[in-house]
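Need residues for this backbone.
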């Protein structure tokens, strides 16, 4: 079973300039459905599809093991406007 910590550790290792990661297990703890927010300036100049592909590639093995996966990707500037 995958945990939020497993996903976070993999993202920290794979996504450069990672500022923040918010992982929510939406399967009530059974590790089969996750919503992820990734904040990194690596996403600068990339569209939404390119950003999600970076995250999906980083979590390729993990995503294959779960039922549902959603990610939202922001630069630090974009994130500061979301949380303001």
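Answer:
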């Amino acid at each position: 079973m995958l945990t939020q910590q497993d996903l976070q550790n993999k993202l920290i290792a794979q996504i450069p300039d990672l500022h923040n990661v918010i992982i929510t297990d939406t399967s009530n703890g059974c590790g089969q459905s996750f919503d992820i927010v990734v904040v990194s300036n690596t996403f600068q100049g990339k569209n939404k599809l390119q950003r999600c592909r970076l995250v999906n590639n980083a979590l390729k093995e993990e995503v294959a093991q779960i039922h549902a996966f959603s990610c939202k990707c922001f630069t630090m500037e974009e994130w500061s406007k979301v949380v303001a």
